[in-house]
Amino acid sequence: VAKKSGRNSVFAFEKIMEDRVMRRAETEMALKRAIRNDSIVPYYQPLIDLRSGEIRGFEALARWEAGPNHIIPPSDFIELAEDAGLIVELSERLLRAACRDAMAWPDSIRLAFNISPIQLSDRQMGLRIMNVLMETGLPPQRLEIEITETALVRDMDSATAILGELQAAGIKIALDDFGTGYSSLSQLSKFRFDKIKIDRSFVTGFETDKKREDIVRAILGLGQGLGISTTAEGIEEDHQLDFLKSIGCDFGQGYLFGKPVSADETRQLLEHRGSAASAMDSSAA
Ligand code: C2E
Ligand code: MG
Ligand code: MG
Ligand code: MG
Ligand 1, atom 11: nearest CA belongs to which residue? Predict the structure, then answer.
């Protein structure tokens, strides 16, 4: 009896594993299809100059448009794309689409674009990005590449080579989610970033935890000391904005100014406001 039930549980286990492998294979196929038929598109969230209140750029954030009213967030497919070896293709298509969209914006409006740590092990990365810029006509000065801290940890030599190439071409490099990753300060000493994006977790919860205010103040000091501009992520409330402005944070991003929206809505937003119009009309004066 024991032998029999043992065998059954082995079968059951195999069945579960088989289902899992099948499901994963199906999801990968669906992802590959979505990439090839451009169902994964960039949405855009405004980046605000906190001194003037003007929109100075947009961050491209990937969205999988899986059906009417069915939008899948990047947390559900970027890692899968990385694991399935699809991230390079996905990223190149997204960048091409984003550069084309940005070409329809005023010249003063920049494009921020995220790349995965894995892509910094690809020695062709710099060339790929430059090719897309040439193909679409977007000047390198209008592009900002955002990377998370883990990116540099994986393959330091390759990462610094690629980021150096991009900077030499006039592209700005931002360190994303600052303060959350592996050894933030050591990353800052290894590469000359153009900007730091302070992670949302420090901005959320100012009211409950005064230490976070002190940390943000210290990060700004660090940025100033290094001559690097600072952007605060995840600004949702007026009092957060007021505090960040009072301590001299350069740029801000968050639902208070706008959630990520489609390319069409972005163009409409820019036409309505004009590039010089204040994005803070509805919030702080
Ligand atoms: P991220 O680069 O740090 O982007 C900021 C994230 O914070 C976005 O989430 C944005 O929608 C969200 N956010 C902005 N303001 C607020 C706010 O006020 N409140 C809250 N609760 N959230 C806010 P999203 O779009 O889900 O993207 C998540 C992450 O996925 C991004 O974090 C980025 O690391 C990654 N990602 C997005 N698009 C791409 C892409 O094209 N390539 C790669 N490699 N990664 C991407
Ligand atoms: Mg980002
Ligand atoms: Mg971030
Ligand atoms: Mg993030």
Answer: 260
